[in-house]
Amino acid sequence: MFNRLKDWFDGRTGYRALTRHVLDGPIPGGARWHYSLGSAVATAFLLQLVTGLLMVFTYVPSAEMAWGSVYFMQKQMTLGWVVQGLHHFGSEATVVLTGVHLVQVLLAGAYRAPREVNWWVGVVLLGLILALSATGYQLPWDQKAYWSTKIAAGFAGGVPLIGPAVRQVAFGGVVFGNQTLTRFFALHAAILPGLVVLVLVFHIILFQRSGVTTPRKAREGPAAAYWPEQSFRDALAGFSVLAIVSTLVIVFHGGPLDAPADPSSADYPARPEWYFLWLFQMLKHFPGDREYIGTLIIPMSIMAVMCAIPLFDRILPSRLAHFLACGFVFALFGGAGYLTYEALDYDARSPLFRQARAQADEARERAFQLAARGIPPEGSSYLLSRDPLFHGRDVLSRKCLSCHYYDGKGQGGDTPQTASDLKGFGTQEWLRGLLENPRSPSYFGKVKQCGGMARWRKNTKLTAKELDDVAEFFAKFVINTPSDMTPEEWEQQKGLQEHPGYVAFNKEGECVSCHSEWGTSNQEAPSLFGWGSTQWITRTIQKPGALDKYGYLEGKDQMPAFTSDQLTDNDLTTLVRFVKGEFLPPPPSHSSVESRSPVATTKP
Fold first, then answer.
1. Are 110 and 96 contacting, i.e. CB atoms less than 8 angstroms apart?
2. Which of 16, 88, 424, 586 has the fewest Cβ atoms surrounding its Cβ within 10 A?
């Protein structure tokens, strides 16, 4: 029955003749290991097709959801990290193997007549594979993807005459977003793979027509059929590719993913994939008006010479032509290798790059931690921008640490402190420390007009136990005062006036003599109604010169007011929540995220 089915299928397709043609095809000189390199390239590309197709079922090409879909693949989908990792490292393997295959063809002289067209097809194939890689690592829409796109847009826009039009078409406008991702996804998942398949099929057809280029020493040896010796070598080469790529996936637990794209983080250390690093470094040697040399003239010249290599034999002696062809390609790879080393060496010696890279790694880990609890409906970019620990700390660094300290450190680490240390502000512990030693630089020791607290401390009759009670009273009743509660309603809370701390606060006018009654203004000290609460800190930031805050101070000692032009609503919200410690703590293994003081940084 099965034989009859095979006969029927062969009668309609002729598959037996095709199979015999492939398996019984003669190989002059017998099987060779280096003939298997083409099969290794095909295996790597087939791996890309299969894993890419699997990823299409999960990936979402939009600026809001792209990062989240890749995160889901890596961290939550069953074996998603394997698929994504195979696709990432398979891409690198495809680029490397295609380049090695091109060098092999060059050394064997397989570019010569009658194989000129196949050489040109191979050069086109290499260009398409590089284009596939370039469009692929943009798709996660993480920090690396976004800033690499910005760099690529700059390259494209720098091409004379056609640059702006190419940039507009390729990137979908001036602002990078959904249009950019949609176009890159269409190129990467549909157009370029289709072109690669067509060119690869044409390449194989031409190869079947012209056959392998037999080494000189093997030309006199007996021919052998493709099956089984060469087919075994090809299968083992393909298996080796899969084994190496799989090992990399296991070692690195999938492919890389940075923090979500953030257009405001201009200090991100943007670098392309390692096989494009030489081009990135080369452009540093052609700054300003000479940039077009690196973006247009040199790449076009390289492509022109590569295509002209099969024609060298027509104008030069054969051995000289082969020497020049090999010399050009080896010089090209050598130059690319040197530029890559130069870029890596510069980054390794640059403290600014290392600092920026460390901050990028920290942002990535924090984004992963937050994403595990859910991504906001507005998109992954809001993960960090709404996080008090990440964004609020950054606002504190940029806006506050020129005067204040945080955990003993200020802007740049050596700016003289003129205001209190904000580490733990609004807590029972911070207040207790203030009551114990208001002259400390951690509180108001360097603010000349705040000497009233120091004089009070010198003359107070309150015991240490009563000071503890005052701090405890503030923690229980004051710091968490609701924003919609009036002072009258607040004082009528059950147990408030009976609390020992309230009694000590009012004892013999110890505190109320300066701070006056709750909710009233004073010319000597700020109102303490709601002290340490969100609304108290917010009003202090926005209107520090108000009478209920620090309006009694001279202008030179007053904290500057921060308007909506200086702090957005989100900036203010995350800043206050960070100061109050209202944020998801980092996991124990990444405790440095919280402990690192928010010191302003210099952009690289």
1. no
2. 16
Among 278, 283, 287, residue whose Cα is nearest residue 338: 278
Above 70 in pLDDT, residue 552? Answer: yes
Residues 177, 13: Cα–Cα separation, whole Å = 48
| The pairing of beta strand 26-27 with beta strand 224-225 | antiparallel
What are the structure tokens assigned to 375, written together? Answer: 């991504």
Q: What percent of the chain has pLDDT over 90?
A: 54
Neighbours of 117 (CB within 10 A): 15
Q: Supply 514's token pair.
A: 């300066």
pLDDT for res 126: 93
Cα separation, 204 vs 224, in Å, equals 20
Could you tell me the two tokens for 4?
Answer: 């009859």
Given this model, what pLDDT does residue 510 score?
Answer: 79
Nearest to 412 by CA among 370, 355, 365: 355
Residue pair 391/383 in contact by the 8 Å Cβ criterion: no
Q: Is 308 helix (H, G, I), strand (E, B) or coil?
A: helix
Q: What is the DSSP string of 223-280?
A: PEEIIIIIHHHHHHHHHHHHHHHHHHHHHHTS----SBP-TT-TT------GGGHHHH
- Joined together, the tokens standing for residue 317 give 């002696």
Contacts of 454 (CB under 8 A, 6+ apart): 438, 439, 445
Of 398, 525, 516, residue with least CA distance to 453: 525
pLDDT (tens digit, 9 = 90+) per residue, 206-239?
887 877 666 665 555 566 677 777 888 989 999 9
Closest CA to 393 of 571, 242, 196: 571
Least confident of 20-24, 161-165, 444-448: 20-24
- Residue with structure tokens 């060779």? 32
Inter-residue contact 237 to 35 (CB < 8 Å): no
Residue 288 and residue 105 in contact, taking contact as beta carbons nearer than 8 Å: no
Residue 289 has pLDDT above 80, yes or no: no
The whole-chain average pLDDT of the chain stands at 86
pLDDT-derived band at 357, boundaries 50, 70, 90: very high
Alpha-carbon distance of 556 to 554, in angstroms, equals 6
Q: Compare 3 and 562 and report the one with higher pLDDT.
A: 562
222 CB-side CA count, 13 A: 2
State CA 126 to chain mean position distance. Answer: 27
Check if the beta carbon of residue 565 is closer than 8 Å to that of residue 572: no
For residue 604, the model assigns a pLDDT of: 29
Inform me whether the pLDDT recorded for 278 exceeds 60: yes
Residues 6+ apart with CB under 8 A from 270: 143, 144, 147, 148, 150, 151
Q: Is the pLDDT of residue 258 over 90?
A: yes
- Whole-angstrom Cα distance, residue 230 to residue 39? 11
First to last CA, the chain: 73
One-letter amino acid identity for 185? Answer: F
Contact 528, 478 (CB under 8 A): yes
Q: Cβ-count burial of 457 within 10 angstroms (0-12 exposed, 13-18 middle, 19+ buried)?
A: middle
Cβ atoms 504, 462 nearer than 8 A? yes
pLDDT at 168: 76
